[in-house]
Amino acid sequence: MPETSQAVLSQDRPYLQLNEGYLAIASPDSIAEACFSIPAVRGIQAVRIVVVANHETAPLWRKVEEVSQVVEHSRSDSARKITHLIRESKLNIESTIAWENSSAAQAFAKIGVKNRLGFPNEKLVRYLTQSVRVAQKPGPIVHRVQSYLNFVKKLGFDPFHAAYFAPPTRPRAPDLPILAISPGSDFGDAAEWPIDRFTELANELSGKFDLAIIPHPDRPEPALALAKSLGKQVCSSEGNELIDFLATCHGLIASDSSIPHLAAFVGTPSLVFFGPNEPEWRRPLGKIHQVIHEHVACSGCLLNKCPLDHRCMTEITSAAALAEAHSLFGK
Is residue 232 classed as helix, strand or coil in its secondary structure? Predict the structure, then answer.
């Protein structure tokens, strides 16, 4: 256990210790989880917030008005390096929140912040002074966003308001509506709808939209293959540029990945193909999106690679996807 750690207190009424200082929050490392946590962070009102985030999630947090400052680090940075970055910011941090066992959570302990809150995860609690246990009642699957909202509610705030889910102001859309297509997934190729079906769908929609092929930074191959079959180039935008571009799009069609969560953040409707993942648990936030999910015998396997015949994706036909696209995007 690190020298800066204190005995963990699991309390029914956890508290934030704030006077004139900041609340520092360690962003979840993945884009999807960061998006799920944003409404809860926005619900922490009348508190000065600094978010410690990696290069992938930092562009999101810079667009959240309720966040005063973002301390950005590399995903590979050690707790020692992040400690140095936080100290360089010269912020008076009085309390911290960490939801995952990350280098940022460890850095909060190294700095010696006296009030450190987080989920009671086995590997995280050693870096906390208060663990916040959120009770989960037996019943249907609930979306991941609920965990973050209930955490913040337990701190005495009321984050359950539609305003905290609202997207940033959107730019003016181009005259010819842009339909973005992103076939790759950072959740593994088991989460990807087949490229030949993406090609069929894109050809059906090409006369109605300006198609933009978006590669996932972690897995660009499917987008490159789709672009080649359509005789197009892939978009080169990443990070903040990608978020801004998605805000100009009329819609997005994508495999289950982090890209639809970026689109949801900026208020762009998405049609998302779900396979191994459970959509009730991890679908994009908001009612403007549509999920296509064929429930098969092995649904919910959460595997990166399919050991069988990939039936959860191959049973989704191009005709069914086209009908959903027409319904969602109005063309």
Answer: coil
